[in-house]
Write a structure and sequence with these properties.
This is Glycosyltransferase. Helices cover 35% and strands 19% of the residues. By secondary structure, the chain is an alpha/beta fold. The chain has a single domain, classed as Spore Coat Polysaccharide Biosynthesis Protein SpsA, Chain A, CATH 3.90.550. Helix 1 runs parallel beside helix 2. The longest helix is centred in the C-terminal third of the chain and has 19 residues. The radius of gyration is 18 Å and the shape is globular. The C terminus is likely disordered.
Length: 277
């Protein structure tokens, strides 16, 4: 198996149908499997997928608590050489996945890759090359963690310049909309840290990939279409708790360094901690 595509969905039936429809065309000429973890939806997701996409490996979240945990459930089911973590609200074009896989095949030191992202109107989204949210950068300056990231990429590529849109570059952080990662790298650095309930898991995993000696890339020669932005209100308690809680978890994790994060799954190396409001 070349690629295992993993999606996690919660009450996104309408968008998910579009995503799975486009995905079926993107993997038509690739040895691939699609794994959908339904995260406690109460809409028609399960019935629709079973009827319209019978080739999708559908499972339900064992515990409906956190995106990272559901993604890990899908990764454990995967058998592909590559694992693609795909958001259920994006459209992949016919050659999107093949081009990304070809890039990874040609770059053995690449641990993961993300691609160019357009909005529903076809406009380039600078978030495609976003390295760290501004709030995280400020927080890392205060805690001294900023030195662990590339200064040039933080200052120049936080909001990508238009003339950088088509430049293939290294990046510190892979986009959580499309993360194509070598399964061997995941086996090496560990699964997603489930303490990151909603935000920060992609930052943490990307950081561990780099610490293990691999590189992360932004590859703009292919693209995805993002159908919708984050549905959580930016000033809602759930957003604030998840966003700032993720920063706190990350800081605690790397300020108080524990050895050899790449030797075994990170969950085995750190005491269980969960930010609670």
């Amino acid at each position: 198996m070349k690629v295992s595509v993993i999606l996690v969905s919660h009450n996104m039936c309408k968008l998910l149908r579009q995503t799975l429809g486009a995905l079926s065309q993107s993997i038509k000429n690739i040895e691939a499997e699609v794994i959908l973890v339904d995260n406690c939806s109460d809409d028609q997701t399960i019935e629709t997928v079973m009827k319209e996409f019978p080739n999708v490996r559908l499972t339900t979240a064992t515990v409906c608590k956190g995106l990272s945990r559901s993604i890990n459930q899908g990764i454990k089911m995967a058998s592909g050489e590559y694992v693609l973590l795909l958001s259920p609200d994006v459209i992949t074009k016919t050659k999107t996945i093949k081009n990304a896989v070809d890039f990874m095949d040609a770059h053995p030191l690449a641990g993961g890759v993300s691609v160019r992202m357009l909005d529903a109107e076809g406009n380039y989204m600078p978030e495609s090359k976003k390295v760290l949210p501004r709030t995280w950068v400020t927080f890392f300056k205060m805690t001294g963690l900023l030195k662990q990231f590339s200064k040039s990429r933080l200052t120049e590529h936080y909001t990508a310049r238009h003339d950088d849109e088509f430049d293939t570059t290294e990046t510190d952080v892979l986009s959580d909309k499309f993360m194509l990662i070598r399964r061997s790298v995941i086996d090496n650095v560990g699964l997603l840290d489930e303490r990151f309930i909603r935000y920060g898991a992609n930052i943490d995993l990307s950081h561990r990939i780099r610490l293990s000696g691999f590189k992360n890339y932004y590859f703009p020669k292919t693209y995805i279409i993002n159908l919708q932005h984050d549905r959580l209100e930016k000033l809602s308690w759930e957003h604030l708790k998840s966003f700032y809680g993720a920063m706190f978890i990350f800081a605690v994790k790397y300020i108080f360094r524990l050895p050899a994060m790449h030797v075994k799954p990170v969950q085995d190396l750190y005491p269980a901690y969960e930010f609670k409001g």
